[in-house]
Amino acid sequence: MILTDELFEKFTKLIYKKTGIFYELNKKYYVAKRLEKRAEILNLDDLNDYYTMLKFSEDSSEFDQLINDLTVNETYFFRDFPQLRNFAEDVLPVFVRENRNRKKIKIWSAACSTGEEPYTLSIILLEMLDKPEEWEIEILATDINTDVLESAKIGVYENRSVRDVPPEYLEKYFTKRNDKYIINFNVRKPVSFKRLNLMDENEMNNINGCDFIFCRNCLIYFDDESRKSVLSSFYDSLKPGGFIFLGHSESVGRISSAFKGQRIGDSIVYSRPR
Fold first, then answer.
1. In this structure, what is the dihedral angle of CA atoms 206, 198, 217, 23, given to the nearest 10 degrees?
2. Residues 249, 220: contact at Cβ < 8 Å?
3. What are the backbone dihedrals phi and psi of residue 112, each rounded to the nearest 5 degrees, phi first?
4. Most CB within 10 Å of its CB: which of 52, 135, 227, 258?
5. How does the average pLDDT of the chain come out, rounded?
6. In the chain, which residues fall in CATH 1.10.155.10?
7. Angle, to 10 degrees, between the axis of helix 5-19 and the axis of helix 61-70?
8. What residues does CATH 3.40.50.150 cover in the chain?
């Protein structure tokens, strides 16, 4: 099967229009292999036929499966530890002091992949909150990829996923069975999973009242216009005073001027102004 530059542009425009994910020409080989795989499974001989099917089909299931194949990303527990340490030891205590009477916390893990991030956040809250059982904790975990969400719900991980988990946490919050690690119930309990396209404004508008939003290592796949759109939705989803955390190579300040930057601990963090 041949993917011409012209046809590649058609595919990437269609993907961008529906998801906000933007693939430049240097990703052509990566995209082509996944297009070819899907076309072969469907017994199509031509990628033009596959494009026509995706563009005009009223059933979105094949497009969703293609997005699953395109968006599989490696992640692991306690990824980007310095940022998580800043959240746990510096930002969270500020939040707790200001909300000790309310004792409710809502976190949104956007682009949660196979679940390591939301479960890590759950572990952090169990460790850092004084009497966490007295808190109403809600962690919403979303992703566009239905395959990774199913894996996240199962909550069984290989060694590579837990390689950065502190040994005492590994013993406390996981059950080892053969060569797998199963996340314990008390970590799972506050976490709910949902499929979500970050460019779906209606769905995004339904998420509100968040104290913290984590969207790390996701917006690097978006262009500037899509990033601004997503950050605008995040702004609306946060409570006044709520914090947002992006990946280490992403900057809230470069994308949007709506958020307030402040130094808490040894890092600059961004929040929705009160």
1. 180
2. yes
3. -80, -10
4. 227
5. 95
6. 5-70
7. 100
8. 81-271
Q: Find the catalytic residue in 34, 90, 195, 236.
A: 34
Judge contact between 1 and 47, C-beta under 8 A: yes
- Assess whether 227 carries a catalytic annotation: no
Alpha-carbon torsion, ordered 169, 172, 178, 182, to 10 deg? -90
* 90 catalytic per annotation: no
CA-closest candidate to residue 209, choices 111, 124, 104: 104
Q: Which CATH superfamily is domain 81-271 in?
A: Vaccinia Virus protein VP39 (3.40.50.150)
Catalytic residue from among 38, 143, 211, 272: 143
Question: Are 234 and 213 contacting, i.e. CB atoms less than 8 angstroms apart?
Answer: yes
Q: Where does 106-216 have alpha helices with state H?
A: 116-128, 146-154, 167-173, 185-188, 201-205
pLDDT in tens, 38-68: 999 999 989 999 999 999 999 999 999 999 9
pLDDT in tens, 187-239: 999 999 999 999 999 999 999 999 999 999 899 889 999 999 999 999 999 99
AA identity, residue 144: I
> In angstroms, what CA-CA distances link 260 with 82, 105, 123, 154?
21, 20, 27, 37
Task: Enter the pTM of the model.
Answer: 0.92
Domain covering 5-70 in this structure, CATH number = 1.10.155.10
